[in-house]
Amino acid sequence: MPEPVREIHAASNNPAPAWLRAGPALFVLLWSLGFVFLKLGLAYADPLTFLALRYACVVLLLLLPFLWLRAPMPNGWPAWRHLLVVGLLLQAGYFSFAYLSLKLGMSAGTLALITSQQPILVGLLAPMLAGETVGRVRWAGLVLGVAGASIVILANSITGSGTSWAITFAVMALLTLAGSTLWEKRYGAETHPVTANLVQYTVGLLVTAPLAFWLEPMRISWTPGLLVSLSYLVLGNSIIAISLLLAMIRHGEASRVSALFFMVPPATAILAFIALGETLAWAAWPGIALAVAGIYLVMRR
């Protein structure tokens, strides 16, 4: 068995800490709020510029605990490669495409719905890439979740949510998010969380900052709305939610953890309605009910 595979199997066999039992509910709340605060912040800055600014803040914030704790560096090239690939897929890929999609007119709720299709990709590929077995009941849950999300997207299509480019970037965000989940499950090794986050966000910064300089006028309006959005995305999304997601992936199964994203669309739709005034068609609510049923089937043991 190759070394990276042996490491992730050893990590997966470790018992999950007790506090991780609250992880699913907390992650859904944090991740859903991220779409809302992201949409809010993009009103005051260009997308890649805003993302590079976010990553710069995260890297500076992580440098202090990294130096204070003297966190160990990744052990060997396989561990370095893992962190670099996850940083490229998740930080540079997923978030860049999500920012661009929202900037081009995609609503926060619709983007959440498109990226919630991630579990079906993970469910299809996990047996081949991560060595997981996906049973009939969980497949039924995945199908229900996808059907529910599709109904919601179709019900809201009459509102013209986003341009064709906005939809394209949303699909790219979905693909890179699924890819990062599968890579983490297949090759992820135990690395100090401060080190892992620092490396991955540095990768994100090194990719997005040059792209912002090349493609955008790098507009930033320093308003209270921007600062509130940036503060949440740095602390709530970048530090807490991502660390929680990777911890759940290591201590669970990739397709089961990924199914949490079926809960994000209804939560995001409600939060976006409260904070941003985004509306959800009444015909979409049966689809949300199907998605919730799907998450129950996939998550239950």
Quick overview:
The chain has helices at 3-13, 23-41, 47-69, 77-103, 108-115, 118-129, 136-155, 164-187, 193-215, 224-251, 254-258, 264-276, 285-299. It has one domain (21-299).
Give an overview in words.
With 301 residues, the chain is mostly helical. It is 76% helix and 0% strand. Helix 3 (47-69) runs antiparallel to helix 9 (193-215), helix 5 packs antiparallel against helix 12 and helix 7 runs antiparallel to helix 13 (285-299). The longest helix has 28 residues, at 224-251.
Fill in the keyword field for this structure.
mainly alpha; 301 residues
Uncertain runs are: 1-12
Instruction: Tell me about the largest β-sheet.
Output: none
Order of helices and strands: HHHHHHHHHHHHH
Work out the helicity level: over 70%
| Helix/sheet category | mainly alpha
Question: Between the first and last Cα atoms, what is the distance in angstroms?
Answer: 28 Å
Q: Rounded to an integer, what's the Rg over CA atoms?
A: 19 Å
Count of domain modules: 1
Summarize the helices and strands and which ones pair or pack.
Elements: H1 3-13, H2 23-41, H3 47-69, H4 77-103, H5 108-115, H6 118-129, H7 136-155, H8 164-187, H9 193-215, H10 224-251, H11 254-258, H12 264-276, H13 285-299
